Amino acid sequence: EQFAFIGPSISICSEEALLQALQSGPVTTCFNFNSAAQKTALGERCKSGCGHANSIIGYSKDHLYLQESWGKGFGRFNNGTWPTTRGSACATNVINKGSFPMIFYDYDRANAYFTETTVDEEELTYVDRGRYGITADNTNNIGLTEN
Questions:
Q1: Rounded distance, CA 11 to CA 142, Å?
Q2: Are 99 and 28 in contact (CB under 8 A)?
Q3: What's the maximum distance between 2 C-alpha atoms anywhere in the chain?
Q4: Is 0.90 topped by the overall pTM?
Q5: Are 147 and 53 in contact, with CB atoms under 8 Å apart?
């Protein structure tokens, strides 16, 4: 049996990190659309921000390829994908917003990360946030994506 454990989401902070992450699968990203005038003037489809989600699914010498979240009817190739030029403002924006989940594989359970058990939720004790000074400002859920 093979077991997979999904860990925290990792942020992409460079093109090098993106290319390495793509070796394991797509990278989630987002951007804001440029207006039609900006797209014509700048030659760019997107700008910084996070109003529209996509996935970076591959790259070539000159382009990054994104999978459109609106479906297969969108994109330059009529299959839901579109390119953006590597090194462009759009490429920089999607790289800066990129993240991917860490996935840990345990093929033979020799390195299992857990022991299967059942829990009676009536017996659980929750941390008293007030007593220990736990607030939204001093906690971080590393299990959420950045988009």
A1: 11
A2: yes
A3: 63
A4: no
A5: yes
DSSP H or E segment with residue 43? none
More confident residue, 146 or 115: 115
147 SS3 class: coil
Spatial distance between the Cα atoms of 121 and 71, rounded to a whole number of angstroms = 41
pLDDT of residue 61: 95
Instruction: Give Cβ neighbours of residue 94 (< 8 Å, ≥ 6 apart).
Output: 29, 30, 31, 46, 54, 56, 64, 66, 84
- Residue 40 and residue 64: Cα distance in Å, rounded? 20
User: Measuring CA to CA, which residue among 124, 144, 147, 109 is closest to residue 7?
Assistant: 144
Among 34, 102, 33, 21, smallest CA distance to 64 is for 21
Instruction: Kindly report, residue by residue over 47-82, the tens digit of the pLDDT.
Output: 777 888 889 999 999 999 998 888 777 777 778 888
